[in-house]
Amino acid sequence: MLRPAPSAPEQRSVTLQFDDNGLLPLLYGEHDQHLVRIEQRLGVRLGSRGNRLTIAGTPERTEVAEAALRALWQRLERGQQVSTAEVEAALRMAEGEAENDPRLPLQDRPEIRTRKAAIAPRSPAQAQYIEMLARHEMVFGTGPAGTGKTYLAVAQGVALLLAGRVDRIVLSRPAVEAGERLGFLPGDLKEKVDPYLRPLYDALHDMLPAEQVARRLASGEIEIAPLAFMRGRTLAHCYAILDEAQNTTPAQMKMFLTRMGEGTRMVITGDPTQVDLPPGQKSGLIEALSILRGVPGIAVATFDERDVVRHPLVARIVAAYGRAEERTAAEGRAAPAERRGKKEQDGTWK
Question: Are strands 45-49 and 12-17 parallel, antiparallel or unpaired?
Fold first, then answer.
């Protein structure tokens, strides 16, 4: 019996025309690498002639490619750079808009302005997160590594400090090794704890000139300290960030949250899937999320592998580990039922 051949998917073609030929090489990338990446990611065909660029593909994918290219062109017109990271960000945002992702804010995309640059969201979840940081006094940011949880929190803190809306920034982390035992560390107290806090220093140097970071650290406008140093303090008129919060105990988390004083904003970031606490020790972040979710004034931003803004392989690694954990959990749930069925068959089940 002859079966009708499946119909080919509907195709659409759109032509964009750009009015500044000098910017086209920056839009296309070296050896057209930006166009190649868009083709690979969306499955569309791009063809350029002069100042015209034609996009061909399914209507949905063509619409995403057009939106991403227009966003990248607007960056170039504003004098901003377009690199591989910006191309990936434009694609993520365009896909979110096409899918009506609820994590995208209703208004124009928010930005955080610091001394060095304006930091724009690179995924729908980042856009939602930036909105939360601007509107709420306490924000939890949870999700895998590479999603910008800490980076954006530090950027918002620097922006508020420069605007005079807070008097200082307090950055803290629990001093927990990632599955290692480092033993005795030489040096004074600062030299002992600095390796744990290095990611926070790196973020600060992306927001402020090096001399300003050094001056503000010396004056106390920016304070970086291990979590253990927070006990007994009241943090007033400051912007406090607790990073790697999945490695806090429930007691430590409660202690930090209750340091909040007048005029203070707090951001708590962490990845509940990467807990480095001893086996059997409950994570303070996981407990806090279950207890505080829904409390007025507290916002929770949740990231996933779609929001990873590091190398594209990182997103695929995170997704693969997530699938493996789901399989392990499913096997764990199935095992008791299998054991019960076996006991029923051999007559040992009572």
Answer: unpaired
